[in-house]
Structures are given as structure tokens and as C-alpha cells.
Amino acid sequence: xxNAALRVVLLDSGGANLGSVQAAxxxxxxxxPVSSDPAVISNATHLVLPGVGAAGAAMAxxxxxxxxxxxxxxxxxxxxxxxxxxxxxxxxxxxxxTCLGLLPGRVRKLPASPGVRVPHMGWNQLRTxxxxxxxxxxxxxxxxxxxxxxxxxxxxxxxECTQGEPFAAVxxxxxxxxxxxxxxxxxxxxxxxxxxxxxxxx
Length: 202
What we know:
6 helices; eight-stranded mixed sheet; alpha/beta
């Protein structure tokens, strides 16, 4: 991977994990500025949409800085992280929020049941459903989650995980992909996902 040719931009979702995602890319030798500037974004080779918190607040931030219109018009590889992944879908039950619509489907609240805690917090194991370069080397790896809502398993799911019931842990369709877990907090497995993403051809 020729890092000198890569330009990663973190899309400004206002999430509290922006700094930790920047640090994760720095550990890979990559600068990853945060921006909502169309000129900066158009010059990027890879785009990342981090996020933590509530879907409605994150979408309000994107509407406020114009990224709700800009993100669907971009053409580079795009990776959503945590809430950033959920925003890639058409809608979320959380606050009945209309999202970016880059992936079909509706994000729903994880069901609580005896012995199953919601929010889902901590380490859990990935299971590969559909091999792809983005998830190479990740089958069976443990990664770190913090979330109460999740996308359903469907034809765009690369990896699933179970918290009471299966949910989509990594998704991809065309240039758009997402990770429900936090790669910046998932040690070597998280670094592997980010490295795989950077290896996706522009």
C-alpha cells in the first residue's frame, strides 16, 4: 500500500470518536483530517464517516454542514463507523430518523431479553457471511461494540455478529461500506479493517 498516494478525509459528523479514529489512522502512518469542505472532500481518495451518539443528532449535524447532500454525490470509497454506518441506510427507528439512503433498509433497536444486555457493549466475534477484500482476515476475530441499534442481516452484509439475534457487523455495496463496531478500539482486528479499506482501489 502506497500511503503517499492516499488521502483520507474524515467527514465531520461531530462525533466524539473523531479524534480516536484520527489516531487509528495515524498508527497506520496516515493523516486523516476532519472536514466538511467540498474542495477538501473532492480531493480525498478515501472517505470515512465516524459517529457516536444518536442518529437524529448526527443527521442534524450533516444537514447543518451540507454533508447530507454532499455524501451521496461523492464517488470515492466510503466507510461508515458505528452511527456513521447506520446513517448509510434509508432510515433508523431511533427517533424515526431519515438517513442518507445509500444502503437499503431500516436500522432497528436491538431486542432485549433475559441475559441479553442492550446497549451491546464490549467484545464480540465476527462471522463472515460473504468474503470480500474489506473483511479479509477478520473471520472469527473479536471486535469492540457500543450500540443499541443495528442494521438487519441482508445481501449487503459481509460479517454478522449476534447479540440476542444476528445483526450486520460489516456491510458493503459498491463503493459504500460500514462497520458497526469501533475499529479504532478493536486492536489489531480494527487496524486490519482500516488497512483493508485503504487497499480498496479508488
